[in-house]
Amino acid sequence: MPYIKEDKRKPLIDLANELEFRCNNKGDVVYAISRVVHQWVLGSGEKTYENLSEGSSILRDALTCYDDTVLLPHEHKKKKENGPVSELDK
Judging by beta carbons within 10 Å of its beta carbon (0-12, 13-18, 19+), is residue 18 exposed, middle or buried? Predict the structure, then answer.
């Protein structure tokens, strides 16, 4: 998970803020994220399965973190407000 020490966050927050400012739509965001991962993988050495797999792992870990900390709490709140879909998800 991406919980890094406070002293390492400032430059990354600045970078994220710059990307937010420059990205005008979903496609821009997807491109920016993809480009960062591509550059990270290319900078990690040879194009081996292990290095290429790291790129996939980065994206999957970011998705898991987003789902766990943003999406799922929202879903739980809405389920509590509106009730379950059926007996299966009570």
Answer: exposed
